[in-house]
Amino acid sequence: MAKITTEIAYKATMERIEELLPLVDDNTPLDDKNLIELELLSNLVADYDDEHYPIKKPSLMEVIKLRMYELGLNQNKLSELLNISPSRISEYLSGKSEPTLKVARDISKKLNIDPHIVLGV
Predict the structure, then answer these.
(1) Which side of the chain, N or C, has fewer Cβ within a 10 Å radius?
(2) Which of 4, 35, 10 is nearest to 22 (CA)?
């Protein structure tokens, strides 16, 4: 099967996908030429994205910062929630230290963060 090899081809394919999107919907028959073309081009773009724009797993500190933002917590409030010092929170957020297993468990439960992310698995 073909492969997108240049940024120019990638952009042209993206433009064609944008043209096709209004022409199909959930009721479009599976043998419709626009739907078939859209699916083929989408797969090519997905392969190019995976190769050239990989999405890395977020670090624990990035996830904690995001959750703090979502919950409206500052470092002091987070330290109270987890029963640890604000300076320890600062160390976690700067990457200077990692949480103990007990703290990691609390982070997972109290901030509703997947244990795999907390443990780096």
Answers:
(1) N
(2) 35
